[in-house]
Amino acid sequence: xxxxxxxxxxxxxxxxxxxxxxxxxxxxxxxxxxxxxxxxxxxxxxxxxxxxxxxxxxxxxxxxxxxxxxxxxxxxxxxxxxxxxxxxxxxxxxxxxxxxxxxxxxxxxxxxxxxxxxxxxxxxxxxxxxxxxxxxxxxxxxxxxxxxxxxxxxxxxxxxxxxxxxxxxxxxxxxxxxxxxxxxxxxxxxxxxxxxxxxxxxxxxxxxxxxxxxxxxxxxxxx
Length: 223
What we know:
Distance between the termini: 95 Å
CATH architecture of the domain at 22-162: Up-down Bundle
Order of helices and strands: HHHHHHHHHH
Strand content: under 5%
């Protein structure tokens, strides 16, 4: 079912998989290439600097998995492009995002195939060349993600027009947590303030001593 959604057209994109249509599936899948490829390059550099074989193994497997995840993200992105409503501004950014995705896939797919073939035969210079290519590839990963974020957060790409209009109306209605919080912590007016807050000063400018009264029929006490 996942392969059907990735590889087929609008019918699969609209039916989705476990509630994920093509745009939402792309949003899930595009996190994996960044995570895996960053780990792959970081551990390859760590291996070259430390010569610890465990680092090499981590770099190898995460690179292969990252290349596969990149392919899945690119394919789901192509399906998402056909499924979302967008105008000219989004389309221009989307085209750049797509080209950068292809370049990213090309770099890391080539590195993964290279490692699959040459892993046990690679010399130090060859490994350093691969690591440098990986660092360059990460630059394309960042650029691809930046353009994807620009489409979503600046142009609301992937959000249906009807949903966006409803959200705009909801925001215009307004909602404030600050007002409610202030009311919750505000003490009742009659619990803190005296009944009569007016205090008269005598001729010397000082407040008179407090007085009290007795209930009717109660004899006055002597000081």
